[in-house]
Amino acid sequence: MSTDWKGITGEKTDEDAAKYLHKLYRQGASSTDIAEVIGITDVTLRSLFRQFNLSIKPHGGQYKGFVKLDISEEEYKTMTYEQIAKRYDVSVWTVWNKTKKYRKKIRKKRK
Question: Which residues span the domain enclosing 16?
């Protein structure tokens, strides 16, 4: 079953409807908010955007996992994770993850 995008938005074509909804999305409305108003799921709305090659924000919130962060070994040794996180405006988890290279590997001896 296909969604009648033209009927939902009042536009002439499905592509025009998608562009209209995408304009709202770019202006700051979330896909969930738009979808709720027109009576569909946000997954369906994002599928419409993909169908017409319209950009979508990464789904899942404020993930900063790809932050380019260079924490020096000196910072690691002299500051707490919380202090480093505050300095770089990232989470403590991000600091922990980015400083793995400085931690010594501890290996238990087998008996």
Answer: 5-51
Q: How many C-beta atoms surround the C-beta of residue 71 within 10 A?
A: 20
| pTM (global) more than 0.85 | no
- With tokens 């955007």, the residue in question is 49
Number of Cα atoms under 13 Å in the Cβ half of residue 21 = 35
pLDDT tens, position by position, 31-52: 888 888 888 888 888 888 888 8
Q: Report d(CA 5, CA 18) in Å as an integer.
A: 7
What CATH number is given to the structural domain containing 40? 1.10.10
User: Does the residue 98 lie in any domain?
Assistant: yes
Residue 60 lies in a domain: no
Radius of gyration of the chain (CA): 23
